[in-house]
Design a protein that fits this description.
Length: 224
């Protein structure tokens, strides 16, 4: 498989760890609805879809009030707990040879605030979050939206890099290469994710991007 021409990144658990704030905001909503709290690790393992796709099923007719509470609590603390994932800055630096963007199921306003907070805005030509496109991941719409300002068309030369099976589904829905970072242990493992390419961690990805040789670091999955 040839190398990338465009790199599009998932956000939470791929480039950053913001799970403490996400768990706190969810648990504030759960407390208001008499739902048992989740630990941070449970939150990491269970949160996949965007809020607009998941809250109606979780809270029924009360989902909009739940949404407003979630965003209110998240706004109070999400920047305080935000940390880059190990190797993320190195991977972004190595990826700077190519156009880069972010496509996340985090609400767009929160996502862009976090990108700015870390000083990473100059790295990305597009930052697309939940609610920005007509539909959220795993639909192709946000990936296709992110490609527009990059002047690129969807195809195998576009790598969408994430940490879950949902990310891999989104990549394939858009006709892009699905690249898994990490072992997806929080999401059923590598086999369930079914990536086209797999890197054990962001440092391995960074080494591959720097060298473009990387057979030891990059495992091309058999179904590619």
């Amino acid at each position: 498989m040839s190398g990338p021409l465009v790199l599009l990144w998932d956000w939470d658990n791929t480039l950053v760890d913001g799970w403490i704030a996400i768990a706190a905001a969810l648990n504030a909503v759960f407390a208001a609805h008499a739902v048992p709290a989740w630990t941070t690790e449970e939150t990491r393992a269970r949160v996949r879809g965007s809020l607009r796709d998941t809250f109606p099923g979780m809270f029924g007719g009360r989902w909009e009030a739940a949404r407003d509470l979630f965003y209110r609590v998240l706004a109070e603390q999400h920047l305080d707990h935000l940390r880059p994932m190990p190797g993320a800055e190195e991977a972004l630096a190595a990826g700077s040879r190519w156009p880069q963007g972010v496509v996340s199921n985090k609400a767009g306003a929160f996502l862009r605030a976090e990108v700015a907070h870390l000083g990473w805005a100059p790295r990305f030509a597009a930052v697309v979050g939940a609610g920005d496109a007509a539909a959220d991941k795993p639909h192709a719409a946000p990936i296709l939206m992110a490609l527009q300002p990059l002047g690129a068309a969807a195809g195998r030369s576009v790598w969408y890099l994430g940490d879950t099976a949902l990310d891999m589904r989104a990549a394939r829905a858009a006709g892009c290469t699905a690249v898994l970072i990490g072992d997806a242990a929080h999401d059923g493992g590598i086999a369930r994710a079914g990536p086209d390419l797999h890197f054990p961690d962001a440092n391995a990805l960074a080494a591959h991007l720097r060298s473009r040789a990387g057979p030891a670091a990059c495992i091309e999955m058999p179904h590619c």
